[in-house]
Write a structure and sequence with these properties.
The protein is an alpha+beta fold. Helices cover about 40% and strands about 10% of the residues.
């Protein structure tokens, strides 16, 4: 187990922090539902933590490999979208959804799902006029994540965010070629809508105690990308793979989180009770380790090939009335 809760952020970084807590901005403890407020990964001029965000990006200059990969990602982001075809292709929504999934997988997606856009996911200050979100998942290398918070783990995350942009643009361009509007998006920038609720609605998995989605196929070892579109589609459905039962018992990510940003109890956030990551504890360490990812690296669902087996065992144990989590070496 790593040293827990002992990290002391640099004075240089903390001098840039605003007076307001990131947890307050996120709506921690609020019992009334509301739209999210931008807190990080938005244009720095519109967020209270803008100077801290800028400081984080500047740290990448100290790691030439990370700096080069981020520069490559910016080149991919800047690529032009394909024009929207003048003649619109019409087909049944279910058929269109299947064709889009085929196009996404041909472009490199490992997970594909569809969510009907929910106005409650839109960040305050943004407009969003697309009725559908095609969610895309790009698998990461679990062996690299296990090295977190060392640089190779950060390299893996940056690389897969870039791949996410390529997959999203490939999928978006295919839709545009059918005569419909489509806009690609990938991380780490937040964009106009929350990605995690959309991915949960699309059936990617369930939220884990570490605040990331755990999928049946890859555990938490994947990054999200998306395409916003107006093509008529069919929505996926949320799924239950046993994460709630498992995380209620497992202590691994909480005990191994260096800044002590995770907890064993779900908390109320903007009217919803869920697992929550303490922003004010997490981000200072995150910023000084090029993205941390310790919680993903130690998650029992991360090991290659383990997630499908864990899901099967958890669902079987629930059916049998067993409350303990299965043990794995």
């Amino acid at each position: 187990m790593r040293e827990h809760g002992q990290h002391v952020p640099s004075a240089e970084q903390m001098a840039l922090w605003p007076d307001i807590s990131g947890n307050t901005i996120n709506g921690l403890g609020e019992t009334t539902p509301r739209n999210p407020t931008p807190v990080m990964w938005h244009p720095p001029e519109i967020i209270a933590h803008g100077p801290v965000q800028t400081w984080f990006w500047e740290q990448g200059v100290k790691q030439p490999e990370i700096f080069a990969l981020r520069a490559e990602r910016q080149r991919v982001i800047a690529e032009a979208d394909a024009p929207i075809a003048a003649e619109r292709v019409e087909m049944e929504p279910a058929h269109f959804a299947a064709r889009i999934a085929d196009a996404a997988r041909a472009g490199g997606a490992d997970l594909v799902g569809i969510a009907r856009a929910d106005p409650s996911w839109v960040f305050e200050g943004y407009t969003f006029d697309f009725p559908w979100i095609v969610m895309l998942g790009v698998a990461m290398d679990p062996e690299q994540l296990k090295l977190a918070p060392e640089v190779p783990a950060a390299v893996e995350v940056v690389t897969k965010y870039t791949k996410g942009w390529r997959v999203a643009r490939h999928t978006s361009n295919w839709i545009r070629g059918q005569g419909w509007r489509a806009q690609p998006h990938s991380g780490p920038d937040a964009g106009p809508v929350l990605s995690i609720p959309a991915a949960l609605a699309a059936g990617f998995g369930q939220l884990g105690k570490h605040g990331s989605i755990i999928s049946r196929e890859f555990g938490p070892s994947f990054r999200l990308a998306s395409v916003f579109t107006d093509v008529p589609l069919v929505a996926g459905q949320p799924i239950d793979i046993g994460i709630e039962d498992f995380c209620n018992i497992c202590r691994r990510c909480v005990d191994d989180c260096p800044p002590g940003a995770l907890g064993h109890e779900q908390q109320m956030v903007r009217g919803e009770r869920k697992w929550y990551v303490d922003f004010d504890k997490c981000f200072p360490y995150f910023a000084e380790t090029h993205g941390c990812a310790v919680c993903l690296g130690v998650c029992p669902w991360t090991k290659t090939g383990r997630a499908p087996e864990l899901s099967e065992r958890m669902l079987r144990r629930r059916a049998n009335g067993t409350t303990s989590a299965p043990r794995f070496g």
